[in-house]
Amino acid sequence: MQINYEFWCETCDKGFQTLQILDHHKSQHQKCNIDGCQFVAHPKVITKHIQMQHSTGLYKKIANLNNPEDIQKWREERKRRYPTKENIEKKAVEIAEKLERGEKMGIKFGQNNKRHNQGQPTRAKQHFGKGKTREQHNNFS
């Protein structure tokens, strides 16, 4: 059964069945206010906004894009650094060269890099007594 939501909160990207429920939801919205940010949304969305915008430093990069020239320059930089196959290969070569020289500072090892956590079980695979994994332990089986 699919519910058809007639009322929608654009900011939170969430639907509601009645206008009263939507109004109640919107009454819970709060302003971010970090670094003068004017973003307004539900506290759960604000938490994600802070993680994705402020904690990464992205907000400071885009907050002052007020004129078309700055916006165009920012877009060009994003396009130049977009992870195309060519850019990924260039980055892999750079990392290999740094590792050959013994440089490890500033290199971020991703999940697909075999050097990262080699031989260590993931959190889900850690054992919790009598051979149970975390999932089994949490499910009380």
From TrEMBL:
<keyword id="KW-0862">Zinc</keyword>
<keyword id="KW-0863">Zinc-finger</keyword>
<feature type="region of interest" description="Disordered">
    <location>
        <begin position="104"/>
        <end position="141"/>
    </location>
</feature>
<keyword id="KW-0479">Metal-binding</keyword>
<dbReference type="InterPro" id="IPR039136">
    <property type="entry name" value="NUFIP1-like"/>
</dbReference>
<feature type="compositionally biased region" description="Basic and acidic residues">
    <location>
        <begin position="132"/>
        <end position="141"/>
    </location>
</feature>
<dbReference type="InterPro" id="IPR013087">
    <property type="entry name" value="Znf_C2H2_type"/>
</dbReference>
<protein>
    <recommendedName>
        <fullName>C2H2-type domain-containing protein</fullName>
    </recommendedName>
</protein>
<feature type="domain" description="C2H2-type">
    <location>
        <begin position="7"/>
        <end position="29"/>
    </location>
</feature>
<dbReference type="InterPro" id="IPR019496">
    <property type="entry name" value="NUFIP1_cons_dom"/>
</dbReference>
<dbReference type="Pfam" id="PF10453">
    <property type="entry name" value="NUFIP1"/>
</dbReference>
